[in-house]
């Protein structure tokens, strides 16, 4: 009510700048950031799919990963490079870790009276399990939040490593492009070592779909979208997104 419609780039503004840029929207309409809208639609599709209400062919979880990367690229990552340290990314890890740990403890307490909980619940490693080899996939849905947690840890370690070698001067965007190249190997090449039939659509293992190495490139691609400040940078990104989507459609 105080700020009115949020201006472009509101995430990076101070409270004073937001207050000074107050805008009044049209009656009956409200502006919503596109990533928030896409995220809401993706969550709806995922949940509806789990309840067998709609079969959209899958892929909405990947969109959630990209939106998470977009938010990361708009907030924590630029702050990390501006300050020259990895602490903002560690804060993201903590923000996901603590509520996930509390939720895991509650799940275990709920499971105790009957069948004991699976160890991966407390270890927060649901994304590292091969559910095709077990009949006890109790909390399969936890893979997403565990995967996101591991992705935040990987990003933190990557920035920490860059800082250790004195490479923070390259900036967030070059860092993301380099990480994206490495992450594409994790998405399109590494799975073959786990399953030599990976490139055959009829022969996939569920474990590959859940690994953080599978989703890191998607997360980083969202970060690249957020840091594309100019029209030229966006034009460079469009063909990359299209090729990435085509390869993903073929492999996954």
Reported for the largest beta sheet, the result is: none
| Shape verdict | globular
How large is the count of helical segments?
12
The fraction of residues in strands falls at: under 5%
Beta strand count:
0
* Average pLDDT over all residues: 85
- The residue ranges in which pLDDT falls below 50 over 5 or more consecutive positions are none
What does the radius of gyration come to? 20 Å
Task: Give a short summary of the structure.
By secondary structure, the protein is mainly α.
Would you spell out the secondary-structure blueprint of this structure?
Elements: H1 15-20, H2 34-50, H3 60-74, H4 76-83, H5 87-111, H6 119-123, H7 143-164, H8 171-188, H9 190-194, H10 206-210, H11 212-227, H12 231-251
Helix pairs in contact: 2-3, 3-11, 4-5, 5-7, 7-11, 8-11
Give a structural overview:
The model has no long low-confidence stretch (mean pLDDT 85). α2 runs antiparallel to α3. The protein has twelve helices and no strands. It starts with 14 loop residues before the first helix and ends with a helix. The longest helix has 25 residues. 27% of the residues are buried. It is globular and about 55 Å long. It has 252 residues and is mostly helical.
């Amino acid at each position: 009510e105080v700020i009115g419609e949020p201006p472009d780039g509101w995430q990076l503004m101070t409270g004073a700048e937001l207050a000074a840029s107050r805008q009044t929207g049209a009656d009956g309409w409200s502006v919503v950031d596109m990533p928030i809208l896409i995220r809401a639609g993706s969550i709806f599709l995922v949940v509806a799919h789990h309840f067998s209400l709609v079969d959209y062919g899958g892929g909405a979880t990947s969109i959630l990963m990209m939106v998470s990367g977009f938010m990361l690229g708009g907030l924590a990552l630029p702050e990390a490079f501006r300050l020259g340290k990895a602490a903002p990314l560690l804060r993201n890890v903590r923000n996901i870790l603590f509520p996930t740990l509390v939720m895991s403890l509650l799940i275990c307490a709920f499971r105790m009276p009957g069948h004991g909980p699976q160890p991966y619940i407390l270890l927060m490693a649901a994304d590292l399990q091969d559910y095709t080899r077990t009949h006890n996939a109790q909390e399969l849905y936890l893979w997403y939040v565990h995967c996101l947690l591991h992705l935040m840890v990987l990003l933190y370690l990557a920035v920490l490593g860059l800082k250790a070698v004195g490479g923070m001067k390259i900036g967030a965007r070059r860092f993301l492009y380099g990480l994206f190249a490495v992450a594409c190997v994790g998405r399109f090449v590494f799975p073959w070592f786990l399953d030599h039939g990976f490139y055959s659509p009829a022969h996939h293992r569920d474990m590959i779909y859940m690994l953080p190495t599978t989703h890191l490139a998607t997360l980083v691609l969202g970060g690249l979208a957020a840091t594309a400040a100019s029209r030229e940078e966006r034009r460079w990104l469009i063909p990359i997104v299209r090729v990435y989507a085509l390869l993903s459609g073929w492999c996954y």
